[in-house]
Amino acid sequence: MAKYRKRPxxxxxxxxxxxxxxxxxxxxxLSCYTSGKQGCVLPHVHTIHNDQIVPLEQNDWILPEPDxxxxxxCKAEIFAATYDDVVAA
Length: 89
Hints:
The protein is mainly beta and 89 residues long. It has one domain. It is built from one helix and seven strands, in the order βββββββα. The strands form three sheets. It has a three-stranded antiparallel beta sheet with strand order 1-6-7. A two-stranded antiparallel sheet has the order 2-3. It has a two-stranded antiparallel sheet with strand order 4-5. The longest helix is centred in the C-terminal third of the chain and has 7 residues, at 76-82. The radius of gyration is 15 Å and the shape is globular.
């Protein structure tokens, strides 16, 4: 099996921490919300793959796809293990 290293790139990301609080990358269109349990509306993002809708959970980070128009969620523990803070110079 070959080994690969993730490219060292800088991304902008925002953490989804509270239901009802909009975060960059979240869908804010009532026409495409999916229904959740007990009729609740689930926050979600659209991915680049077939414009798939992916539900968000509290503490997920929202990361941009390479096209900058679509986003995907990342669990907090995976984000912490994969990304470091960039200190502004």
